[in-house]
Fold this protein.
Amino acid sequence: MLDFKKRNMLKSGLLIAASVALLAGCGKKEEAKPVEAPVAAAAPKPEPLKVAFVYVGPTGDAGWTFAHDNGRKALEAEFGDKIQTTFVEKVPEGADAERVFRDLATQGNKIIFGTTFGYMEPMLKVAKDFPDVKFEHATGYKTAPNMAVYETKTFQGAYLAGVVAGKMTKTNKLGVVASFPIPEVIRNINAFTLGAQSVNPKISTRAVWISSWFDPAKERDAALSMIGQGVDVLIQNTDSPATLQAAEEKGVFAFGWDSDMSAFGPKAHLGSAVIDWAPYYKKTIQAVLDGKWATGETWWGVQEASIDLASLNASVPDDVKKLVADKKAELASGKAIVFSGPLLDQAGKEKVAAGKDAEIGMLKGMNFYVKGVQGTIPK
């Protein structure tokens, strides 16, 4: 009986103690937890600048379009995820070009490059309908508030090639596979001739016009026809390596054009008159990103590292290589040695007086052959 009472008393005491402890716990003030600072939301990443290119030929033409696409790739390497590039190849000059320009503008591209002369009018028309899009036209002459013109002095590369041709020919007959009779192409025929005549006054040049920028079969036929007439050094103002390949087959010399074509005719290839579009494309895109783009006309050459005569053949004598290097240095310094006077046209009429340089208007609108070029310019 006593033990039972003791157990009840002990049990009651434990309950009381537990209650007191519980009450004490409930009465204890909770310590305030430190307030964590809110994490700042990351700034949204800016959308990349959308850049589009429209090409008249295939990117694999090894010439003009290939060179432009190398420029596009250089942009991607330079600017990374700041830009997003796209291209459309083999777009004919005319109505198809207008449709492509319009599609690219509606897809959100903020700057569009059209890379051939015949895109000028279609691009100008679309530019008026998309004032917030910037347009850049290669080799043209018409501008708008949102449309600029850019070009390279390909005639400088043709002149340097001519210097080599004048030293390497045995027949003194040079040939040009020509595309369309526009000032750009006529300038190149004349410059090639003048470069050759600067080291060999006996030079004469003939041209075969094929009315196409890229047609390997026609280019080959034109080259073969001139080789049959005794031409032993060829250059082209077309986009495939067919001229060089024909020269390799027939055992004469030729030059690559716009890009390094040495792989297509290692024995025939004297050098390649190449264009590097990357400097201009980088400058232009940086201006857009900085909000400093402006319309206008740009014409770059050797001085701006846009034009060069590359991959001279080992068969070219050292004294000729030095001569080319000296001429290139003059061009790089800004000297207008290509179309400096006295300059005579095909009929012997003076076009630029001795001690003078051709004015920009004459160069941009050149519509005559210089003395030594045979045949007539197609209408």
Notes: Residues 1-30 have pLDDT under 50 and may be disordered.
